[in-house]
Amino acid sequence: MEFVIRFLAGGIVVSAFALLGDLLRPKSFAGLFSAAPSVALVTLGLAFHNQGVDYAAAEARAMIFGSIALAVYGILVCHLLMRKRWSAEAASSTALLAWFGIGAGLLMIFGA
Amino acid sequence: MTIIRLKFASLKQSRWYEYVIRFVLGGLATVLAGGIAKLAGPSWGGLFLAFPAIFCASSTLIEKHERRRKEMKHLKGARRGQEAAALDAFGAALGSAGMAAFALVVWFGQSLPPVVVLGLAMMTWGIVSVAVWYLGRIGRRNLKPFANKKLPA
């Protein structure tokens, strides 16, 4: 049941932010909504409710490493599109490897 | 001065199934983050709160819409599509500062009630993201006059 709630709540919040991103101009401003903490809002809300404050705080701490990896990911995708002329699909999916490598690396260096 | 505006016409470019794809991806990303936290602990789950799963779908859609818009005017749209997706990626890179600020507020706001913490974190995300985006624009504008000049040997 919890997974169903997660799926529905996540889908609704993510869609709402994506819709806002579609509506807003200029495009670089709309891009801010691609990095909106929509998944985090739902997950941390449920973590506070189900597992408690300490659990949510531990998730939030690790999320900082994910955010740093996201900054590198965004710059890398931008580079692959503009300089290497990759398609958006190829650039955004290939750069996921860099996101995971950097995020996991930071998490292992600074402690899980 | 850049004016931030709403462009409702852009909604017409999207097909109904594109909204469904985003909904499903958003739901799956949330389930994934929760599942990883259960299996590997809150730290690994927390890392996936910043997973750019939705970005892949959004970026591909942006490229497709921009290309289609240009091709309807009998222009080559491939390059324009890539540029639009690159701008979105640049915005996401800037927005990651807001996401980190969101996480910091949740991390340090443990003594406050959860609703207040999440509300404060969302406000911080908005303020930091807009501030970083605005500073980025000022920086780019100031660098423009030097872009075409050759550096002295």
Strand/helix succession of chain B: EHHHHH
Helix content of chain A: over 70%
Per DSSP, the total helix count of chain B is 5
Distance between the termini of chain B: 35 Å
- Mean pLDDT rating of chain A: 91
What's the alpha carbon Rg of chain A, rounded to whole Å?
A: 16 Å
Helical element count of chain A? Answer: 5
Helix and strand content put the structural class of chain B at: mainly alpha
- The end-to-end span of chain A amounts to 28 Å
Largest sheet of chain A: none
Rg of chain B, rounded, reads: 19 Å
Unreliable stretches of chain B: none
Helix content of chain B: over 70%
What about the largest sheet of chain B? none
Regions with little confidence, pLDDT below 50 for 5+ residues of chain A: none
Number of strands of chain B: 1
Strand elements of chain A, count: 1
Strand residue percentage of chain B: under 5%
Describe the structure.
The complex is a heterodimer of chains A (112) and B (153). Chain A is mainly alpha-helical and 112 residues long. Chain A has five helices and one strand; from the N terminus they run αβαααα. Chain A folds into two domains: 50 residues; 53 residues. Chain B has 153 residues and is mainly alpha-helical. Chain B is globular. The mean pLDDT of chain B is 85. The interface between A and B is large, with 85 and 82 residues.
Q: Top keywords for this entry?
A:
heterodimer, A: 112 residues, mainly alpha, 2 domains, 5 helices, globular, B: 153 residues, 76% helix, 1% strand
